[in-house]
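Quick one: sequence plus magnesium ion SMILES, need structure tokens.
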Amino acid sequence: MNEPFPLRRPIRELPDTLISQIAAGEVVERPASVVRELLDNALDAGASQITVRLLAGGVRLISVEDDGAGILPDELPMALKRHATSKIGSLADLESVGTMGFRGEALAAINAIADCALLSRVNGQTHAYLLEGQTGEITPVARSTGTTVEVKELFFSTPARRKFLKTDATELAHCVEAVRRHALVRPDVGFAIWHEGKLVEQWRRCGELASLPALEQRLTDVLGADFVERSVWVDFSTSATPGRPDYAPIIKVWGRVGIPDAARARADQQFCYVNGRFVRDKVITHAARSAYEDVLHGQRQPVYALYIDIDPTRVDVNVHPTKIEVRFRDSREVHQAVRHAVESALAAPRAGQVSPQVATSLVRTESAAQVTDWGQALSPESTSPILSPASYSYTQAGMHFEAPVGHRVSDLAALWQPQPTAVPLPANDWPLGRALAQLKGVYILAENAQGLIIVDMHAAHERIVYERLKAQWADTLGASNSSSLPSQPLLIPATFAATPIEVATAETNAATLHLLGLDITPFSGKTLAVRAVPTTLAQGDAVELARSVLTELSQHEANTVVQRAHNELLGTMACHGAVRANRHLTLEEMNALLRQMEATERSDQCNHGRPTWRQVSLRELDTLFMRGR
Ligand SMILES: Nc1ncnc2c1ncn2[C@@H]1O[C@H](COP(=O)(O)OP(=O)(O)O)[C@@H](O)[C@H]1O
Ligand SMILES: [Mg+2]
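Reply:
Sure thing.
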């Protein structure tokens, strides 16, 4: 039995080592945490090349070598001291801190739970000096300018921690991830990782972060060619509000976001940086995810590398010992900026712009590298930032479609009233090509410069109708006099046998129905009559439309629908207004649909996040037939 704990014991200051061991508990969870801290230090020292060497997943050895500014020999012991830092000297410094570190805690903490050595040479000095962490002994050694920090036998003094470590392979993976996070924001620094004497990863320095080609190169090296091929540039800044000098939140959001097709089952490719620091932030993650709301199916996780630059006084990085969390002064402005930035990057239809949505399943032998080639062949300006729909050319002689203005969809009626086609359509100029035929009443086959295009006609039309409804809805809410979606009375009202709930819903929601361009009134006690439908949906089945809208309305409060759930509701309506399978389309109608797709935002995905079209390249077709070129 233990001695009973004495009720009163003298108050004493904790010994330094114990304080550092306690601090280490917060900062150092596993080898990867040490790697992160040492990388921060190397970058703060201005390194341009960093080499990480590991043994046994980092548990036996972590060595981080840099070519940075180095540490003077008489300052070496200070580096291992608690709360000793060269990076800030005052509270004012802390508020606008530009370095990765500033707490002066990491090395002391690591030294308290591992066997550390510091080896450093300052430019201009004749020697490098080695400091043994355990003994405090300093000896001159040979080394070029820069610093190496060696951390051996992590957690040797805290075996409880050591037991929590996973296999070497898992710890190694975490270490690599830590380097990756730094590498993605520092393309101006070269990184190499060695494990057990073998080179695991190597990323050469390729230029400043601000240079798009450099960033693209680094993203390719670290995340793979696939990431870059299936993503688009984001570039967005909020501007200072005129007339409000106190309010100048210049937030810049840039980087690359994956197209919906590139989404993954896990959120393992979501990299966010605030002022050059990797962060995990709920506000940013939520904003980014909500930008995909309309185009991503279910639980799929988007991929992205997003860089957010914000006035350092508007963000607090001193929230968490590892600085992985930040606190924004105004999280709403950040949310809005990120959401808007990502949303507008995703909105532009991608036919003929970035890499095509390749039907890889058709021909599995094609390598990712070849996909790149097609992407470049397709679009010479594929590296330029977001192209707007208006950047398409619709002005060739004999064309019957005009470039859409802004983000509005040109008149959908054209789809059902085909224009006379006196002049043959130029087959190779349109991103989605010239319609050839309809397959099984479901797909449109078209020919473009790259080969064959396959379009899911219902999915595509549904998106077009949906985007049009959303635009009209925005107009309806914005206009002071116009008070509903453009609506069209039915020549003969469509009546249907309704349930008591449907009748009641129609009565209580008459105003909302009117807003939506619907006129549904009781005909007799058990019958409802649809007397008007939105013009955009005039081709659809009025009864089906009425039924589904009533079902949805019965599940929501009427004003909730108007405020929050209107996109869902408009989506439901679009589904009923869109062209059904097995409806025969003429070539003119098919071509009209293709042109509408090219001009409609988010038209690469249907309302449920599935793709609406696929490209099958000539090369893929040739491979199918073993035809060499
Ligand atoms: N790789 C390095 N190159 C140059 N100086 C370093 C390096 N690593 C650490 N230092 C020095 O040691 C100090 C303490 O490092 P650390 O404990 O990580 O605290 P912090 O980074 O918060 O200042 C730093 O402020 C810096 O002066
Ligand atoms: Mg540090």
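The chain has a mean pLDDT of 82. The longest helix spans residues 457-478.
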